[in-house]
Amino acid sequence: MRLRSFASLGFMLLMALTPLVALAQPQPLDRIVAVVNKDAIMQSQLEDRVTQVSQQMASRNVPVPDEDDLRRQVLDRMIVEQIQLQMAERANVSIDDTQLNAAVRDIAKNNDMSLDEFADSLEADGMSLAAVREQVRREMLLRQVQQSQVASRVNVTDREVDRYLEQQGESSDTAYHLEHILVSLPESPTPEQVEQAQAEAHDLYRQLQDGADFQQLATADSDGEQALSGGDLGWRRGDQLPTIFADVVPQLADGEVSEPVRSPSGFHLVKRIETRGGQGEQKTVVTENQVRHILIGTNPNRNDEQAESLAEDIRQRIAGGESFAELAQQYSDDDGSALDGGELGWVRPGQMVPAFEDAVDDMSVGELSQPVRSRFGYHVIELEDRRQQDVTRDAQREQVRQTLFQRKVNDELEAWTQEIRSGAYIDNRLEDSQQ
Fold first, then answer.
1. What region holds the PpiC domain (predicted)?
2. List of residues 6+ apart from 135 with CB closer than 8 A
3. Of 159-168, 385-394, 413-422, minimum mean pLDDT range
């Protein structure tokens, strides 16, 4: 069994997985192609990444640009990645093995494989699971940095959600497949820089009107995050369009390219590839469980074995007729629920840690659980009631909140990328050698 195209794994592996270079092959002398603050990017690292990106583009039928253009684009992405990894190091951000193992298992699952089958397929394709794990860890670090730095700037208020629902009513039932080219601007650009970027964007627009291939131009010239995917933004529902495209895309015909659109991060060209209707709003019903629990955690005076033993003793006392509420007030380490006799009220899927939720799902109303282990300690759980609840309105509001949040994040991301670049010391020696 061979591994499917990595394109099916999403962007996380598109840029992360780098083929191993056979040690037996003679290696040319290495050199530094860029210095990013205190770190160097080597020619060998760049060439490995260029090879990998070329293979990915070919597998997705994205036209490969001129070799120098591709090398420049790849190095530019590597420079931005290196800045973010340095930010992660300074902030002591790390990915523990539990998170990493879960991510790798998800990748294997997305390819309909067990972890062992995934490892075998990687080996057959000349890669090792250990190498892939480190590349995935690296990509997860980048995502965490972006989440902490960009998402922390974004807030969506209840009033914004209300206003959106008033203006839009139900969610848009139209989705658009889009491609995108960005001609970026530096932070606080001069009038000359704006004029130059605008002229470049109009030149690209002219080339596209004359029949140039959008994906090839995007790969060679776009400063956007999706440049090495041919500028492909994928499918976006009408209510999920970036703010700057919300008024532009619906006015385009399929196959049409917009004129340059200005934003703080630069000038954008967007192409509407295809349109399809959505399914509209659907009723959302979830199972809610009314539960109470007693949490026995570990501490300097109570190890894991002692915590489990105490939890089992409490469970037996409840089963023998003692008051759940009184024992919760006396023993529970969950301060938030202990004073209420361990009551957690009605909880929905996703609100509790997985081990707790899995145990409740398997319980019958009135049942008392065995001690359930989670990262917080040992839980003794009682399922008091269960019901089906229509949460359509709540789900709609949450969907709108996430839509507005993602719009704001997308608007911020390009500007943040330019900001961190302008604040870093970058010595791009590849550009010097190509001049």
1. 173-274, 286-385
2. 13, 16, 17, 18
3. 159-168
Q: Which residues pair with 383 in a beta bridge?
A: 291
For the chain, give the number of residues.
Answer: 435
Rounded to two decimals, the pTM is 0.55
Instruction: Please state the φ and ψ torsions of residue 323, each to the nearest 5 degrees.
Output: -70, 125
Q: Catalogue all structural domains in the chain, each as residue range(s) with its CATH number.
A: 6-149 (1.10.4030.10), 158-281+395-434 (3.10.50.40), 285-390 (3.10.50.40)
**19 contact partners, CB below 8 Å, separation of at least 6:** 48, 51, 52, 55, 126, 127
Cα gap 426→429, rounded to integer Å: 9
Q: What is the mean pLDDT of the chain?
A: 84
Q: How far is CA 29 from CA 15, 26, 63, 227, in A?
A: 25, 10, 30, 30
Residue 211 has pLDDT above 50, yes or no: yes
Cα→Cα distances 235→169, 176, 241, 278, 421, Å: 21, 5, 10, 11, 29
Which token pair is 399?
């969907």
User: Chain centroid to CA 134: how far?
Assistant: 17
Q: Is 32 helix (H, G, I), strand (E, B) or coil?
A: strand
Helical segments of 66-213, H only: 67-90, 97-110, 115-124, 129-149, 158-168, 191-209
pLDDT in tens, 361-402: 999 999 999 999 998 999 999 999 999 887 777 777 877 788
Alpha carbon 270 to chain centroid, angstroms: 22
pLDDT confidence of residue 167: 65
